Amino acid sequence: MPIATYPHWHDWEGQALIVGPGGIGLALAAELARRAPGLRIRTAGRRRAHIPLDLTDDASLAALAARAPAELAPLRVVINTAGLLHDGALQPEKRLSQVNRQALERSFAINAFGPLLLAQAIEAALPRDQPVHFASLSARVGSIGDNRLGGWYAYRAAKAAQNQLLRTLAIEWQRRLPLACVTLLHPGTTATPLSAPFGRSVPPLTLFSPDRAAGHLLDVLEAQTAARSGAFLAWDGQAVPW
Description:
InterPro entries: Fungal_SecMetab_SDRs, KR_dom, NAD(P)-bd_dom_sf, SDR_fam
Shape: globular
Mean pLDDT: 93
Domain Ketoreductase: 14-190
Pfam family, one: adh_short
Number of strands: 7
Protein name: SDR family NAD(P)-dependent oxidoreductase
Low-confidence stretches: none
Structural class: alpha/beta
Distance between the termini: 27 Å
Order of helices and strands: EHEEHEHEHEHE
Largest sheet: 7 strands, parallel
C-alpha cells in the first residue's frame, strides 16, 4: 500500500529530471537543487539542457528511453515544463474563423502528447520501492468547468487532453507503481516568454516571477503523496475543476 506521507525535500535521494529548461524550468531546477541536496538534478530539452530532447520527435524520445535506465535511475522526480501557446504565426485564437489544423496539431503534440510520451520514455528508470513524483505543467485555461471566456481553442483543448491523459496514467501507475504520484500543476501567470504578450493585462501582484512560481510549485508537490495521485492543482494547492 502507498505510504501515508512522503519525505520532505531535504530527505530525497536519487535523480531528478526537469524537462523544458525555460524560465520556470530553470527556476525549478535551481530551487529543487537548493531544497533537495540529495537529488542530482538533470535537465532535458532542445537547448540549454544536459540531455537533448524534443517531445515532438519519436527518435528523440526513443533515445531518452534507451539511456534512462542506466543514466537516470533511480529517477525520483520528473517535472515537465514544456509548453506551446504562441510561436510566430501561431497565436491563440479569438474566434472560430482563426482555427486551423496545423496549429491544433502543433499544440496537441507538445501540450498533450508530449507529457504522456515522456512518462513512457522514463518509466523504466522509476524505482518501484520508493516514492516518485511525476508532474507536468497544465493551465487553468485547460479546465472545461472553469471555461467562461472561450477562445484559445488549441491551447485549451490540448491542456484539457493532457489532464485526461495523465489522470489515466495515474490510475495505471496506482496498480503498477503504487508509490508514484502524478500531479498536474497550474503555475499561475508567470513572467516568461510564453505569457509575455498577455502580461500587461495581469495585475502586478498576480504576475509571478519564475523563482516565485517554482517555490509555489515545489511547496504543492511536497504536500502530495501517492494517495492523491492524479490531482489537478493550482500554485496555491487548491484543486482546479476538470
